[in-house]
């Protein structure tokens, strides 16, 4: 116990509390400055199309603060898109393939603060009766 007290006293002699406070303030100001820059990052979005949910890898672009708010503070994680809003083609009976460009347009209209640069591969969706469940 005595060793811990002597170690803390030694730390207080070597490191000034004013220095630690100013160092922390400088870090906070640096971080705030960095949040003002533009960044591009990958983000996985959950999409529900007529009751079928799947994940899509997206590339998003925006200010650091907007990206932080979108990725961390955003409450809506799943985007509902009706099949009638998308272009698609029937791959085989009961399975469709959604056009990534139409999905990107639909998602862009639902995401406000950041720009949706691109949408990754969209998995095929299984439906029973030509697009109806």
Protein traits:
alpha+beta, 2 domains, 7 strands
Notes on the protein architecture:
With 133 residues, the chain is α+β, with helices and mostly antiparallel strands. It folds into two domains: 2-34; 38-126, no CATH class. The protein is built from four helices and seven strands; from the N terminus they run H-H-E-E-H-E-E-E-H-E-E. The longest helix has 18 residues, at 17-34. The N and C termini lie far apart (70 Å). The relative contact order is 0.16.
The SSE string, one letter per element, is HHEEHEEEHEE
In total, how many beta strands? 7
Number of domains: 2
What's the oligomerization state? single chain
Helical stretch tally: 4
Strand order of the largest sheet: 3-1-2-6
- State the low-pLDDT regions, or none: none
Biggest beta sheet summary: 4 strands, mixed
Q: So what's the overall shape?
A: elongated
The whole-angstrom Rg is: 24 Å
Helix content: 25-40%
Head-to-tail CA distance between termini = 70 Å
Structural class: alpha+beta
Question: What layout of secondary structure does this protein have?
Answer:
Elements: H1 2-14, H2 17-34, E1 38-49, E2 52-63, H3 64-73, E3 78-81, E4 88-92, E5 95-98, H4 100-110, E6 115-119, E7 125-126
Parallel strand pairs: 1-3
Antiparallel strand pairs: 1-2, 2-6, 4-5, 5-7
Explain briefly what this protein structure is.
The chain has four helices and seven strands, in the order H-H-E-E-H-E-E-E-H-E-E. The protein has helices at 2-14, 17-34, 64-73, 100-110, and strands at 38-49, 52-63, 78-81, 88-92, 95-98, 115-119, 125-126. It has a four-stranded mixed beta sheet. Strands 4-5-7 form a three-stranded antiparallel beta sheet.
């Amino acid at each position: 116990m005595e060793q811990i007290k002597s170690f803390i006293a030694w730390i207080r002699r070597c490191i000034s509390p004013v220095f630690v406070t100013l160092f922390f303030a400088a870090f906070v100001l640096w971080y705030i400055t960095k949040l003002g820059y533009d960044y591009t990052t990958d983000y996985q979005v959950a999409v529900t199309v007529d009751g079928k949910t799947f994940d899509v890898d997206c590339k998003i672009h925006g200010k650091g603060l907007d990206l932080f708010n979108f990725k961390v503070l955003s409450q809506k994680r799943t985007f509902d898109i009706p099949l009638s809003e998308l272009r698609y083609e029937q791959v085989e009976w009961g399975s469709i393939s959604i056009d990534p460009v139409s999905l990107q347009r639909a998602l862009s209209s639902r995401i406000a603060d950041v720009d949706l640069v691109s949408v990754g591969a969209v998995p095929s969706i299984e439906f029973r009766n030509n697009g109806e469940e």
